[in-house]
Each structure stands twice: as structure tokens, then as C-alpha cells.
Write a structure and sequence with these properties.
The protein has 16 helices and 18 strands. The protein is α/β, with parallel strands linked by helices. The protein binds zinc ion.
Length: 448
């Protein structure tokens, strides 16, 4: 008898053939998918009837930061945002505050059907402990920032984290996270790349996010950020980068050639007025493009449905071509291509026999998803990209463990997380010394 059987669902596998079953079962045993298809019904200790629902791989959020201060720093120019709010707050985190933040972020991701996330932020060991409890699959690349000092992790803390956590749990993946080429030295990039390659780990960084960054590199180094990193030997299949908004054609060809994946963060790029990543060009030239929410400071939620929709509509607008980035492309970007960017495509990202059972069940019951066609003519992928949202996810499963069932989270106590968040945010703002600034801003806004 197997552990779990999900029956009667509309199964969207996102395998390489794009296989779809109008009504099928997914059989799970010992954390993996052991059978899949219309004839896969078999005795199981636990059966979930997914009639009328979509069964699909969980989302891979390939770039985010587990931050706490959502909605407290809006509508500022980027420089003021960083100087007055972000840096003081980043400096003020303690492990206990980060713990509350990780609980909040992971609770939200379970409820949004994200089964794997990449966290590039502070106190990775604390966040990883939370992931042990939440049941999510987490990739932790501690955010190293050298300039200005004190706002991020360091090479030493990243190294210690890797030593302590590498191989400790199948759901926790460790790597290196130099923040960006304008906050980290060449030496650091060379060093973490060497370490990562020696130990078969990966490196994640922000790259070519703003014109400020690119102009500065052209001025100071006579080279674009990707071309500069390539000269240092940093570009390779071990690296995946966030944003890639301002890339030249040569940059794109270089990333394709070096097999560097890029994470598209459309909402963040719009909100911070960074620009529009050349996603259609990247795909044409063979770059793997994944999808990410970025942090709740620049999004502000962790909803991959919204991200798929924003990502597709933004590219249609800027290319002037309504046919670019199909629904299936967006779904792949949010799942299997994310897995590929992390070097995990053999394990996760699609529903296939032998893969980890990272599965979500999405309801088509709400009026915003009518008419839901699930027969020979079906519009499921279309609904997932253009109409659905995180609240339509009913059930979230990682490695065969049910983390949420019928929107009831089983691994974390929502009341407890809420109290922890309320206490932590007060302490964080006070420690950061930004309460007075926020009060003045709020008063100013009310006067408008
Ligand atoms: Zn980011």
C-alpha cells in the first residue's frame, strides 16, 4: 500500500511533452511520485479526491528575500528607499526577528502553492530551521554585502552556514549569495565561485538590475556587469542571477553560452522602476528564464500566479506582440525552468514518475475561474496564468508531506506566526530608528 493517492484531478504534468490528463491519479510513496495517469489508481493509506481541481507541480520561487517590513516604505525614490529605510532596517535584524519573518514568508508561500523557494537574505541558519518545521523546500544563499558594511551576511558567515547545513536535510539546499557586483568585491566573487565549484554548490546574485549599476560598470571598468564577471571566471552553469533587466545582446549571448539562468521578477522591476527584462530575447537565444517574486518590500506579496500574469502582460506590452510568452511558457517559467535554474530539474519542477512529490491542488470552483473547461477543449493553463490567484490553491504537498489541506496549514500555527510577526516588526522598527521617519511620512501623506 502506498502513502498517498490523489485521484480524479485534471493533471497538468509540465513534463517535456506537455502531457495533460483530463482525469487521472497521482500515486505517491516515500516522498516520490511512483505512478501517474488514468490507470494509476491503487490502494493508499491516504486518498485525496481532486475532482474539479487541477493537480500540478508546486511553484519554484527562484528569487526572494524573507523580509518583514511589507508595506512600510512605499513610493520613495530608490536612493532614499535604500538609505532611509532598507539599510537601517537590514542592520537592525536579529536572529529572533528574522525567525518571525521566515515564519511569515513561509506560511504565505505554503498558502500560495510555492513548494521551493530561494531565500537570499539574513541569518540563513534561522530561516533554514523554520523550513525544517514548515516542510517547504528551501534554497538558502546568504546575502553577502561588503559595501556598506553591516547590512548583510559575510563570506565567513556564508561559509559557516554551508559547513553546518550542507547535506543535513534533503529539503534544505545551501549555496553562496554575493548580493551584487556593486556591493561585493571582485575577490569575493572569485572566492565564492571557487568554493562553490569545489563543493558542487551554486552561486546566486543580483545582476544588471538598474541602469545605475550598468552605467557605473561601463564608466569604472569599461565593461557591462556580466562581461566583467565573465572576465573573473564567475559565469558558468553553477550561477543563476536575479533580474537581468539591462542586458545588451552580447550580454544575453554570453549568459546563454555560459549556461547562466536568469530569474525574471516583473512586479519588482516595475515597482522599483528598474525597467523591463528582455525575456523574449533571452528565451530566443537559449537562456533559461525562471520566475521570482523578489521580496515583499518590492512586490508586495508572494503570489506566483500574479507574477506569471504580470510577466506575460508586461512582455506583450513592450514587444507590441500579444502572442509572446504563452500560458504554457509562463507555467514552465514558474515551475520546471525554475528547477533547471537551481540545477534541480531531475528532482522537482514537473509531475513525473521518480520525481519528488512536490504537488499542489488548485481549485477551479470560484466564479473568477468560470467557465472552467476540463474536457477535450480545456482552458486550465489559461485560467492559471490569467485568472487564478494564490487563494485558489487548496492543498500544498512537499516530498509527499501535506503542508496545507483545503487551505488549512498543518505545519505552522497561523495564530502563533501572527503574534510573532507583530512583536518582531515593532522591535525591528525601533532598533532601526526609523519610527520617527515613518511617522513624519505618514503625516505628510495624510495631509495630501
Ligand atoms: Zn532581490
Amino acid at each position: 500500500m502506498i502513502d498517498l493517492l490523489i485521484t480524479n484531478g485534471f493533471v497538468l504534468t509540465l513534463d517535456s511533452h506537455g502531457t495533460v490528463y483530463q482525469r487521472a491519479a497521482v500515486a505517491v510513496d516515500k516522498g516520490r511520485i511512483v505512478a501517474l495517469g488514468p490507470d494509476s489508481v491503487q490502494p493508499a493509506r491516504r486518498v485525496i479526491d481532486a475532482r474539479g481541481n487541477v493537480v500540478m507541480p508546486g511553484f519554484v520561487n527562484a528569487h526572494m528575500h524573507e523580509t518583514l517590513t511589507r508595506g512600510l516604505n512605499e513610493d520613495l525614490p530608490l536612493a532614499e528607499w535604500l538609505e532611509r529605510i532598507c539599510f537601517p532596517i537590514d542592520r537592525a535584524y536579529t536572529p529572533e526577528i528574522l525567525r518571525a519573518s521566515a515564519l511569515m514568508n513561509q506560511l504565505e508561500m505554503i498558502r500560495a502553492g510555492i513548494t521551493t523557494f530561494v531565500d537570499i537574505y539574513r541569518y540563513p541558519a534561522v530561516a533554514a530551521e523554520v523550513a525544517l518545521r514548515s516542510g517547504l523546500r528551501g534554497v538558502f544563499t546568504p546575502q553577502i554585502i561588503e559595501i556598506p558594511p553591516g547590512v548583510g551576511e559575510t563570506l565567513e558567515s556564508n561559509r559557516a552556514f554551508v559547513e553546518e547545513w550542507n547535506g543535513r536535510c534533503s529539503r534544505i539546499v545551501v549555496g553562496y549569495g554575493p548580493h551584487a557586483p556593486y556591493t561585493c568585491s571582485d575577490f569575493l566573487y572569485i572566492d565564492v565561485t571557487r568554493r562553490a565549484r569545489e563543493t558542487n554548490l551554486r552561486v546566486h546574485t543580483h545582476l544588471s538590475e538598474t541602469t545605475f549599476e550598468v552605467q557605473r560598470f561601463l564608466r569604472e571598468k569599461g565593461s557591462t556587469p556580466p562581461q566583467w564577471l565573465d572576465r573573473l571566471g564567475v559565469l558558468g552553469p553553477w550561477l543563476w542571477v536575479a533580474h537581468g533587466v539591462h542586458l545588451s545582446d552580447e550580454d544575453i549571448d554570453l549568459l546563454a553560452q555560459r549556461e547562466v539562468a536568469v530569474v525574471y521578477n516583473p512586479t519588482s522591476n516595475m515597482k522599483l522602476a528598474s525597467g523591463v527584462a528582455p525575456v523574449t530575447k533571452m528565451l530566443e537565444r537559449g537562456v533559461t528564464v525562471a520566475l521570482g517574486t523578489d521580496s515583499n518590500l518590492s512586490n508586495n506579496n508572494l503570489d506566483m500566479f500574479e507574477e506569471m500574469r504580470a510577466g506575460a502582460t508586461l512582455q506583450k506590452l513592450v514587444t507590441g506582440d500579444a502572442a509572446v510568452l504563452s500560458c504554457e511558457t509562463m507555467l514552465r517559467m514558474a515551475t520546471i525552468w525554475g528547477a533547471r535554474a537551481l540545477g534541480m530539474e531531475k528532482e522537482i519542477g514537473s509531475l513525473e514518475v521518480g520525481k519528488q512529490a512536490d504537488i499542489i491542488i488548485v481549485s477551479l470552483e470560484s466564479p473568477h475561474l468560470w467557465p472552467a473547461l476540463t474536457g477535450d477543449v480545456h482552458n486550465v493553463a489559461e485560467h492559471l496564468v490569467y485568472s487564478a490567484n494564490a487563494a485558489d490553491v487548496q492543498t500544498t504537498i512537499v516530498e509527499g508531506q501535506i503542508l496545507m489541506e483545503n487551505r488549512h496549514v498543518l505545519t505552522l500555527d497561523e495564530g502563533e506566526v501572527r503574534v510573532a510577526v507583530e512583536c518582531a516588526v515593532r522591535e525591528l522598527l525601533e532598533r532601526a530608528g526609523v519610527v520617527e521617519y515613518l511617522r513624519t511620512r505618514t503625516t505628510r501623506e495624510q495631509g495630501k
